[in-house]
Amino acid sequence: MSQSKSKGLYLVAAGLVVALVMAAIALAQQTQTNAKIDKLTHLAEQQSALIAQGAAQGDIQTQIVDQLEAYEKAKLLREYESVVTGYQNAQDKIESGDRIYGNPDAEFSVIEFSDFDCPYCKRYHDTPKKVVDGSGGDVNWVGKHFPVHASAQPLHKASECIGQIAGNKNFWAATQLIFDNDGSRGLKPADLADKMPVDREAFAKCMASSEMQAKVDADYKFGQEAGVSGTPATFVIHHKSGEVYTLKGAVPAGQLEIAIGQLRKKAVAQQATPSS
């Protein structure tokens, strides 16, 4: 390449970089979103590097698109990774098919009926988790779908598809991401899949089938039969005695712990009472 052509190419590169950076600044002033500045800055850096390497314009465009897609995917997965690390007490596979967080053989289960578009459910979501995490394996948390809001239905189905494709732990990570993004007001099923390590073709196939919707519907019917009329609704069960304690609304962790304590005392008292 001649010196004059090389100099011209670098001037073009510099001009493109300046233009893109200026666009980033203008966009920041208009939207005040740092995420868009990052994206445009990344684009400018990639274009500058490719031009400096002497790549053809068509190749530059293709490579930049590929790199931006990879950049966006990595950014989305960082959100997932920050969430899934908090769900290490969830096993990847549960033989029963239930959505269980914690020890599947725990003495107590906290069964929660939840709606992804319910603000009280969002507030309550961390509560059963905290109780399970502090129980030393004595308590688990069972998630049940009860989408009172029709707008939440697709996300309930999507969470089950993710659980089916990527395992029980990722189901729980998906529920956290849904609440973190304000339910259907912030996410569509495809957006959720973008944030998760799931095969998009398998996810689309699952969403097109009726299998996971049937699971959501079965949870809803079970909740109705159990007397659930609003969310969140919680049933604390002591498996050995079969005793159940019912809680309504976004109760604090202390109330859950009191319910567990009362069921434990009742079970001990029953064992101490001689049978007739």
TrEMBL record:
<feature type="domain" description="Thioredoxin">
    <location>
        <begin position="41"/>
        <end position="265"/>
    </location>
</feature>
<dbReference type="InterPro" id="IPR036249">
    <property type="entry name" value="Thioredoxin-like_sf"/>
</dbReference>
<dbReference type="Pfam" id="PF13462">
    <property type="entry name" value="Thioredoxin_4"/>
</dbReference>
<comment type="similarity">
    <text>Belongs to the thioredoxin family. DsbA subfamily.</text>
</comment>
<dbReference type="InterPro" id="IPR012336">
    <property type="entry name" value="Thioredoxin-like_fold"/>
</dbReference>
<dbReference type="InterPro" id="IPR013766">
    <property type="entry name" value="Thioredoxin_domain"/>
</dbReference>
<protein>
    <recommendedName>
        <fullName>Thioredoxin domain-containing protein</fullName>
    </recommendedName>
</protein>
